[in-house]
Design a protein that fits this description.
With 230 residues, the chain is of the alpha/beta class. Helix content is 29%, strand content 19%. The longest helix is centred in the C-terminal third of the chain and has 15 residues. This is Radical SAM protein.
Length: 230
Amino acid sequence: MAELVRYAKINTVLPREFLLLQGKGCIFKKCAFCDYHTDISDDPFSVNLPVLEQVTGEFGVLDIINSGSAMELDEQTLALIRQTADQKQIHTLWFEAHWLYHDQLKEFAALFPNQTVKFRCGAETFDPQLRIAWNKGIPKEVTAEKIAEYFQGVCLLIAAEGQTKEGILRDIETAQKHFEYCSLNVFVPNSTPFRRDDVLAVWFATEVAPALSHAPGVEILLNNTDLGVG
């Protein structure tokens, strides 16, 4: 695997330090579009230590993603995150987690008693049929409103096979209504057989993204490295 960039500073709708850490392995690993779970090793802490040492606390907000869900970070890494957040006067921590962990979020947040802890869910779409087709692992009866009971942010997949313009716009509107933050991620072809709809990708980039460029709480990734890590 090529060396990944794991630290970035972001000055967009949510100014923060942004870290790509390595976890122990995604518990799910079945999403049709994802090969992200391959970012693992026998010693994730040795990967994560130099990344966390770069944190300055400049924004007071630290956003951490990893190869799966935050609950899959090793104990040493979690302890160092807590120590770093306290020492650098971080007031807000963001993490990502699969819906499967929704009942564990409060327990996880309690590991960081001196910070406000917020979570993002990779829902990808609020269309239950598409989620089933993409093998997302979120039951069809789970609505945006239900996800928002547990998560403050959501990630949406854009321009993937099976989507329509109307469905994408409906997903974005729903995310803006129920979540304080949403990222709109145009699918970038990877090692999976999953396909991008290039017509939708061009339409989104030229007609939709510009209109959302200053929308509160919305971040747009036309490429999966647009936030500086990956």
